[in-house]
Amino acid sequence: MLRYLPFLLVLALWIYAFIDCLNTPEEEVRSLPKVVWVIIILLFGEVLVGPIAWLVAGKVGRGPTRGVMPSEWHRDQRPQYVAPDDNPEFLNSLKAESAPSKDVKDVKDEALLKDWEADLRRREEELRRREAGEGSES
């Protein structure tokens, strides 16, 4: 069983490097294009040159996280989301949008109200005519 262990370790590193290369975003790949790294890993994986080259020179190194434990990661992160009520830029944009358009909006609202009133009067008159016409026929 121990004689298969080196082969299994090489295979595991080969598979890890291949999947890691495929899952790494293009902007985090260094030195060569991502496709070239995949070919290098596949061609030289059996002798460990390809996977080790990928892990050492192909990937952008990430700095250490602030906390040691996952719970500390969340504690050290500052929330980036700000509610609209607390965002002064959003509130100012609302004021800027509503201020110049009040006159135009009022004119549009008044015109719409006049159209509705005229339509209502026309329908009431039509209803009165129908009722008067039905009352005289009976």
Notes on the protein architecture:
By secondary structure, this protein is mainly α. 67% of the residues lie in helices and 0% in strands. The protein has helices at residues 5-23, 34-43, 49-58, 70-76, 88-98, 102-137. Helix 1 runs antiparallel to helix 2 (34-43) and helix 1 (5-23) packs across helix 3. The N and C termini lie far apart (109 Å).
Fraction of helical residues: 55-70%
Total strands: 0
Integer average pLDDT: 81
Query: Rounded to an integer, what's the Rg over CA atoms?
Result: 36 Å
Overall geometric form: elongated
Major sheet summary line: none
In summary, what is this structure?
Helix content is 67%, strand content 0%. With 138 residues, the chain is mainly alpha-helical.
Throw out a few tags for this protein.
138 residues, mainly alpha
Would you spell out the secondary-structure blueprint of this structure?
Blueprint: H1 5-23, H2 34-43, H3 49-58, H4 70-76, H5 88-98, H6 102-137
Helix pairs in contact: 1-2, 1-3, 2-3
